[in-house]
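User: For my dataset I need records formatted as: sequence, then C-alpha cells, nothing else. Please produce one.
Assistant:
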Amino acid sequence: MLQRRAFLLATAAALTMPAVSALAQPLVKGRSTRVRLTGARAPIDIVEDELGVPHVRANSLHDAYFGQGYLVARDRLFQIDIDHRRDMGRMAEAFGEAFVAADKAARLFHYRGDIDAELADLPPGVLECAEGYVAGVNARIAELEADPAQMPLEYGILGISPMRWDVRDLVRARGIGMGDADDEVRRAQMQAQGVLDADQLMAPLRPAWSYTVPKGLDCAAVSEVDLGILLPSARPVPFDAIQEAALDPAERRTDRFAQGSNAWTIAPSRSATGRPILANDPHLGIGGFSPRHMVHLTAPGLDVIGAGAPGLPGIMQGHTDRFAFGRTNFHIDQTDLFILRTAKEDPELYWHKGQWKRFESFEDEIKVKDAPTQRVVQRYAQGKPIVAQDPERQRASAFATVSMLPGGNMRFAIIAINLAKDWTSLRRAFRIHTSPTNFHYADIDGNTGWQTIGYTPIRPKHDGLFPAPGDGEYDWAGILPVEQMPHVHNPKEGWFASANQMNIPADYPYDKKIISFNWSDPFRYDRISEVLNAQPRHSIADSIALQHDVQSLPARSLIALIPAKLSLDAAKAAGLLRRWDCGIEADSAAALLYEMVMPQLLSNFRDAVVPEAAKAFIPSVNLYEMLSILAKPDKRLGTDPVAARDALIDGALAEGWKKAQAQAGGDPAAWRWGDLHRVRITHPLASSVPAIAAAFPPIDGGRSGGDSYTPMARGFNAKRGYQVSHGASYLLVADVGAWDNSRFLLLPGQSADPRSPRYRDFYPRWLAGEMQPLWFSREAVERHAVARTLVTPG
C-alpha cells in the first residue's frame, strides 16, 4: 500500500535510466566562485550538484570537516546558533530575563570534569575533524560579519549576533533531558496508591517483568516536586512553540516515543542486485527547522556522504566508499532519579555510603540583556546534577544520566564512525557513542551487521523503574561494554530491520543486563517484516516503496473486531471501513474516518478499564495493549467482557462517524484524509515574533497520507490538530558498492534562508515520494555539477 502510487512508479522506472528527472535540472551551470577563509589549512574544492548536495574535496581531515562546518553555517546558521546558545545557557544575554531559568537549567548540565582529558582521550583523527568543523562555522560567521547583507534575516529582526564556537564547548554542553524520570515518579506514586498494576495499560513492560520497589524508598513521599528543574514548567522558554504541550504528561510521552525511525538491511542472498541494500528513514520533528543537512566529505583516508545533524560534526546516515550505515532509536534506560537525605543543620551535606558529604558547587554568571548579571550556584553529588532541593524535608534529588559521565556526549562519536574502515574498526568507534541506537551496516564485500550501541548503566541492585535512595546502595557500577550489547553479523535470514520495537533477542540475558522495559509498539516493524518476508529478491525500488508504505496494521485489527450488530451511525462507519484496504492514503475517505474512530476508541477504553483511582496517572492507554485486550476480552471489561467490547467499538464507530462529519462535511464521498493531514513548515519563532513570520513565508499546501503507525510515518498529535508533526524528513536507500544508484530525499531543502533556491526545492519531491539520485563517484558528481567554490586559506 503506497502513498502516491503514480509518483513511486515513476521513481522506480527512473532507477533503470541514467538521465535525471526534470525536477533535478541545474539551476546555474558552471557557476564558480573563490573565497578566502580564515581557519582553512589548504585549498578546498567544493562542488555543488544539481540537487544542492555539496561535495567537499580537501587535502586533510581538518579541512574536510572545515568544509562541512562552513556549509552548514552557510545554510543553517541561525538554526545551529540558537541551539548552541540554548545548550550553552546564553539565551538571557540575547533575549532578556525571561530566559534566566532556562539558562540556569542548561548550565546545570554542563560537564564539570577535566575537558582537556576528555579531548585527549578521543580516538586518533577525531579531534582534528572536530576542530576543523568548529573553524568552518567560525569562518562563515567572520565572512558574514564582513558582509552583513548576507547575514540570515533573523539576526537583523531580533537585533542579535551569532556566537563564535569553541571546540571545548562540544565537551562542555551535555544537554538537559528528563529521560524516564517522570515515569519513575509516576510508578512510585501509583505504588503508594495501590494501583501500580494499571500502569501496564499505558506503559507495558517489555520484556515481561515484575515490579520491585528499591528497599528504603518511601513511595508515599515521592511527587513531581522531586523532578525539580527537569519539569518543563520549571524552565519555561518563551520561544518554545510547543511549551504548552510539553507540560502535558500524555503529550510529553507521545512526543518521546514519536522520535523513532525505520531501517532495514538486505544481504546479497536476498537482494535483486546481488549486492547489499541498506534503507533508513529517521523519524524526527516535521514543521520547523529540518533536522538533517546533506554533504559529501573527501580527504586522504575519508570518503563519506549522507546527512548530518546541523551543529553536530559528521554524517549520521549515509555511506563511505566501503560501507553504508543507518540508525534507528534503540531504547536504553539511561537515567535514574536518586532521592538524597540532606543534613538538617546544613542542607549542603548529603548522606552517602555511611558518611555526610558536601555537594560539589560551581558558581555561574548569567549575563542578562537590559538587566544585571545574575549569579547562580549549581550543585552536584558524585557528578550528578541536583535538580531539586527541599531543606525543610531534608530532601534533594540527584539526576543520574549517562550524558554527564566522562566521555558521555555525542559530539565526537559520529566522526569516529565516519573514519572507520570496516565492521571491526566501527565497533571500536561505538565505544564513545552515547545515544541509544540500532546501528545498521552493509559493506562492499557483502557483509551485513546490526549492533545496538549507547551507554547502558550497570545497575547491580535495582532495575531503574523507580526512583532509588541516593545513599550509595543503588549507585551505578559502570557502563555495559558494547561487545556485550545485542548484535548480529551476517544473519542467516538474509535481512534484518529495526523500527524501535522491542528487539532484544530471546536468548539475551536481559535479567542480568538490564537495558530497557519501554519500547515503541511493533506495528511498523511487523509491517516491514511482512513485506520483506514476501520478497525473495528485494530491489532498490522495493525499498523506496516500503519507505512510502501506508498499510495500517492497527486498522486491520480494528476492522476484524467490528461486531455484526451495530447502531445506525456505527453501521454506516462499519460499512465504509469494511470496504477499505487499510491503507492510510491521502485521498482515502475511510482513512479519515479511521483516524476519527481510533482515538475515540482509545478514550472510551481508558474510561472503561482504567480504575478510577489510577486515572490521574493514566491520561492515555497504549494502542497495542488495548487491541490485545479487545481481541481477547477479559474481566477488566466487566462481567460480560465480549458484550462490553462490542459496545465500546460500537460507540467509537458512531462517535467517529459524527466527528468525521464535523471535520470534513456531511458527504462521506468527499472525505479525504489528506485534507486534514497536511504538511506545513514554519519558522520556529514565527508564532512568537511577527516580523519573523512575515520574513519567512510558510512552506505549505501539501497533503499527506500515513500516521504514526505506518512504515511511512507521518505522525500527528490530535490535541494540536491533524497536521503532520513528525516523520522521515530524510530518507536514504543505498545500493552498496554501486553507490551512484543510491537514492535520497530531504525535506524541505538544504537552506533555511527564504532567499535561497534551496529553501523549499525538495518539498514537492518529498510529498510525491520521488526519491533523487545521491551522486557519489567523481565522474557522476562532475557530470551533474552546477557550481564550484574554491576556498583558499585567509
